[in-house]
Amino acid sequence: MNKSIIQVTAGRGPEECSRVVARVVEMMMKDARGKALDITLLESTKGHLKGTLLSAVLLIQTGGISSNKTLEAFIQEWRGTIQWVAQSPFRKYHKRKNWFVGVEVFDVNKQQEWNLKDVKLESCRASGPGGQHVNKVETAVRGTHLPSGMQVLAMDSRSQLENKQLCLKRLEAKFMAWQMEQLLAKQQDQWQEHNELERGRAVKVITDKL
């Protein structure tokens, strides 16, 4: 099963662009579901006005009768700069009618660079409320991802082996979330820096009323 993360951003655009982000997300989700692709809104950052989004992150993957080719075609259609042609719903007499948002896609499988060799595990004594020791042996496990410095402590079980497994699972999840946040932040910064240039290369032009 192929999975991809999609980011839709208004960059430094005005409120109209944030409104376009919300509309584009709605259209993408409807389009994906019509093609039997599984799509989920993972997170979104609301704009200052009702019905607007500064950015949104979606997870899309093959599912049902869809194929990898269907997913690839969907990404090809939406990836890049989207030009939305409409009169501003916020500024009635504003002359500008072209609004731009950026759509970037990340292959989840290519981003997963988790390596157990980068993890340092240490046993430690689990403590309860008020400093009372849950037990006298070191059953808790602290995991450190050395390249990033992230740490996770697992002390759910009295079994050190179970805590080790929990620690590794949670540390990996934390690492993946952190890595994706870094990628999305970097991409948004890049699109903001180059949005003037990208406006001339829109992959899709949508004419509609906001």
Automatic annotation (TrEMBL):
Residues 125-141 form the Prokaryotic-type class I peptide chain release factors domain. GO terms for molecular function: translation release factor activity. It comes from the Bacteria. Gene3D superfamilies: 3.30.160.20, 3.30.70.1660. Pfam families: RF-1. InterPro entries: Pep_chain_release_fac_I, Pep_chain_release_fac_I_sf, PrfH, Prokaryotic/Mito_RF. Belongs to the prokaryotic/mitochondrial release factor family. This is Peptide chain release factor H. The lineage of its organism: Bacteria, Pseudomonadati, Bacteroidota, Chitinophagia, Chitinophagales.
